[in-house]
Amino acid sequence: KADLRSVLAEKIKSEQERLKKFVKEHGNTKLGEVKISQIYGGMRGIPALLCETSLLDPNEGIRFRGFSIPECQKQMPKAECGDEPLPEGIFWLLLTGNIPTAEQTKMVTDEWNAKAALPDYVKKMLDNLPKDLHPMSQFSMAVTSLNKDSKFLKAYHSGVKRAEFWKYSLEDGITLLAKLPNIAARIYRNIYRDGKGCDEIDKKLDWSANYGRMLGFDDPFFFELLRLYLFLHSDHDSGNVSSHTTHLVASALSDPFLAYGAGLSGLAGPLHGLANQEVLDWIGKMQKELGSKNPPEDKVKEYVQKTLKSGHVIPGYGHAVLRKTDPRYMALQAFGERYLPKYETYLLVKTIYKVVPPILKSMQKIKNPWANVDAHSGVLLRYYGLKEMEYYTVLFGISRAIGVLSSITWHRALQIPIERPKSFTSDALMKFVKGK
Ligand code: NMX
Ligand code: MLT
């Protein structure tokens, strides 16, 4: 029945020794070379980051501490009447590397429930923001503002030793995760429900069910979808924009609230987390223009071609690392097949999956023609009545916090220094090439 803090402290102690030895022995081993094209190409493929929590394989997709999505679905603790992993358990897994017991997972749920309440100043700030300010801007502001009571910040200024920093970062991470559903639900109710609804935690429920309830829903199948959603988006190695931004900011020893506030701003970009909003918007426009909720394949093909011709990307398709269909897409697709197989927009998502890859494959410049997670998440939320597309990325943001806050704790435990890669001017690169 060991608790999270003591399990983690043990793991950190042994990893500190193991990794110190590893770097001492192999610190000079080369992993690759950097080409000039990579400097101009978003650093694609440059092996440069440490991420202990998950590993992304271009063909297989993500593994969380070595466990694939189906393995997590099989082995992780579930809610009483659910089949999907509890995100609280994923937090335990990402932090410690071990699959928790049901009892250990419940300890996380209980702690998050106990710490969920928002300070009055955060509530007031959210209640006074303009309703037409994007939910992601509101989300990032609320997360940033929580740094007023950061334990890490306080510890840093009171002279706590560097070796102890991770403990205070962990406390901030737990506090933040506990409060995220409350923040997110308040934003939703303020924008779409005139501020009405509950913000009280039901201590008998898990994190996802409480979030669903605070959003104003009571369907247990929707709660199950939230568990799946919040599990799937939790981590995607550390090179993606939201994780890398969070790491970069935290490497300056900014506290976890500041770091994740910045990460959320990156997640809000249309090429990253905002794509789930864009997908449903694009599908809605297609349905309107073609005059059908589930248009035939040839019409969908024409619409896709038209989108590409107008210079837009097909949202939900392609990926900087993946070279096959995202297994997160497959997990969401399996959920759709099980619970809403006849829903017309779900059927259209299936048609799009049939039509888009061959078209993108024929455009040589596109490295990955396959669907990513964002191609499927929105349609499921919509089916259960969460129809406000502009809000979708907030769910992604609640989930991604699990991974990046675990990573901050590890980076502090391993005392990874401030990130500061070298940059060049184009003239300096030309001079370098001439001198060779
Ligand atoms: N539709 C049309 N064109 C595309 C697509 C797509 N789905 N994906 C890539 N391309 C283009 C891309 O814009 C680039 O064109 P150009 O050289 O003219 O600038 C070219 O193909 C080469 O891009 P890649 O090297 O294949 O992809 P890259 O690694 O640069 O970008 C994404 C990855 C994900 C940003 C890109 O595939 C994309 O814009 N997809 C649509 C948006 C999306 O679904 N984003 C969500 C990603 C997942 N997430 O959750 O964050
Ligand atoms: C993510 O989950 O962060 C996205 O798939 C983007 C990425 O990995 O680059």
TrEMBL record:
This is Citrate synthase. Belongs to the citrate synthase family. The active site is at H272, H319, D374. InterPro entries: Citrate_synth-like_lrg_a-sub, Citrate_synth-like_sm_a-sub, Citrate_synthase, Citrate_synthase_AS, Citrate_synthase_euk, Citrate_synthase_sf. Keywords: Transferase. Homodimer. Pathway: Carbohydrate metabolism; tricarboxylic acid cycle; isocitrate from oxaloacetate: step 1/2. It is found in: Mitochondrion matrix. Its main location: mitochondrion. It holds the Pfam family Citrate_synt.
